[in-house]
Please model this.
Amino acid sequence: MTTHTPATPAPDGFSDPRETWNARFAQPGLHYGAEPNAFLVRESARLAPGSRILSAADGEGRNSLWLAERGHHVTAFDLSPVAVDKARRWAQERGAEVDFHVASVDEWDWAPDRFDAVVAIFVQFADPALRERLFSGLWRTLKPCGLLLVQGYAVEQLAFGTGGPGRRDHLYTPQLLRDLLPQAEWLALQQHEATLQEGRGHVGRSALIDGVARKPG
Model:
């Protein structure tokens, strides 16, 4: 009788993303730390009180929980069931309410005109085709006049090696974001460098792109 040995994910984590992220999030502690993303904290002043918000690829919940604790109505999803289980336990410990789901980009229901704001922080383990589907969904599910808050690594991050997928075609440029969202009104779109300290996942000097886009009313 021939036994089947499960495939081992490639070292770069792209051949089996769900199992790769499960393995990362199964480690003790929080992979990206307990603090919310600094860009999100800064730009959250643009959000209307009590906004209905989607946090895409939310991981262990650091960003969605922070938003929920500030009075927003937050839905979040992530590919990794390990991450979502940790996020749910963490929410219970903190007494915060977030509607968590396990889903990939292609599994998520991008219902139109559903959210006042959508947050996509370092959603970069997506090749160009998946990235197009992701941003199409993010845009579709925003209500008119809704806001998309996005931060990711710029192409120049390849020289730093302090986080991210390590593949040029997965990284951002300002023009790439403009091309992905041709109808957007960009309230902010900048490339810059900053030193990150987000758990063990993002540590050190980094090349970043921050964007806040508004959907026309």
